[in-house]
Amino acid sequence: MTKRRGDSMLTVICPGSPAGERFERLLSAALAGHAFQRVSWLTDPLAERRLFFAVSLPESGVSHGFYDLLAFLRAHPGCLAGSVGGILIDGAGDLYTKAIGRELVLAANLAGCRFPGRPLVECTGTLQNFTVQAKNAGCGLSEAADLASADLVRRILDFSPPRHSRPKLLVLHASNHKTSNTLALWSRVRKQLENTCSITEIGLRNGTLEDCSGCPYTMCLHYGEQGDCFYGGVMVQEVYPAIREADAVVLLCPNYNDALSANLTAAINRLTALYRTAPFTGKAVFGIVVSGYSGGDIVASQLVSALNMNKGFWLPSRFCLLATANDAGTALALPGIDARLEAFAANLLHHLQE
C-alpha cells in the first residue's frame, strides 16, 4: 500500500501467475504513489471500483488465468457495475496483445465497466510499439512503457465523464431505411430519446466516401488544424462539424462478413485528421450491431479497438446493443426486443444526462 490519491483506491487484478521482471517493473511504475490492493482473482464484489487489469501474456498468447477471468466476466454480466477500468498487457512476443486487450475490454464492458479513452497499454516483446512515444519523450523504450502505464493509472483514477442537460448525439450509418434491421431498431430507440436529446443523423450510403490513404503526419496535421481533410467530401462538410458538437456518437452497424461496412470503416479512418487537433476524450461511443447469422461480438470489438482504444472516445458500460436478425423487419419481432431497446436508451441517458 502507498498513499491514497484523493478518495480513490485502485484494485489491481492480475489473472494467473504473473511472470518476469519486466511485468513487475511495469506494475511498480504504474502504481507508484497510489493506494491499491492487488488480487489474483475476482474474490470480492468489484462494483463501483477503479480497476487496473494487468495481464502477463506468454508468447503463445494463451494464458489460462486470463481466459478464466474472461469466462467469469461473460458469465456474470453485472459484476463490474459502476466501475472504471484500464488494462496493461505485457506480452512475451509481438503478437496477440491488442487482440487480448480488446477481448477483455468488451467482456468487462458488458459486465458493467466503463473505460476512458485509450484504456490499453500493450507492451509487445520488443517494445517496438513504443518507438514514437519514446522519441517524443526523449527516453528509451522501457521508460516510455513505464510512463504510459503510469499515465493510464492516473486517467483511471481521474476519470469523470461530462454530463449534459440535453445530450447531443451524432448517429452514423450506411444502411437502407427500407431493408435495414439495424435502422429499424434505431428508429425505436430514437423515439425514446427525441424529447431529451438533440439528435443529428448522417447517412453515409449515397455518394463516394474516400477512405484514408495515410497522408504524411504533417499534411494530416495541417488539414486537421483547419477542420479539414485532403479528401474533403461528406466527412468535412457534415461529419467533422457534427463530431465537434456531439457529446456522443452512435454507430449503426450491420454485420458485413464479420466486419464493419466499408463506408463506416472509411469514416472512422478519416477521423484521424480531426483527432490530431480535437481530442475525443469527452465524447462517448455507443453502437447497435445486427448480425444476420452470428458474429456481432466481432463487430462490437472492432468498435472498441477503433474508437475507444485508438481514437480515444470513452466507453460507457454496456455500450452496444447486439441482436441477430436476417430478413428485413425481423429484428423488431425478436423476443424481448422492446425491453432491450428501452434498456439501451435508458443506459445511454444514464451515462450522458445530468
General description of the model:
The chain has helices spanning 21-31, 64-75, 97-110, 131-137, 141-158, 181-193, 217-225, 234-245, 262-270, 272-275, 296-310, 337-352, and strands spanning 10-13, 36-39, 50-57, 84-91, 120-123, 168-173, 198-203, 248-254, 284-291, 320-324. The strands form two sheets. The chain has a five-stranded parallel sheet with strand order 2-1-3-4-5, sandwiched between helices. The protein has a five-stranded parallel sheet with strand order 7-6-8-9-10, with helices on both faces. 40% of the residues lie in helices and 17% in strands. Strand 6, helix 6 (181-193) and strand 7 form a beta-alpha-beta unit. The chain is of the alpha/beta class. The chain is globular, with a radius of gyration of 20 Å.
Spatial strand order of the main sheet? 2-1-3-4-5
Q: What is the N-to-C succession of helices and strands?
A: EHEEHEHEHHEHEHHEHHEHEH
Distance between the amino and carboxyl termini: 35 Å
Low-confidence stretches: 1-7
Quickly describe the structure.
The protein is built from twelve helices and ten strands. By secondary structure, the protein is of the alpha/beta class.
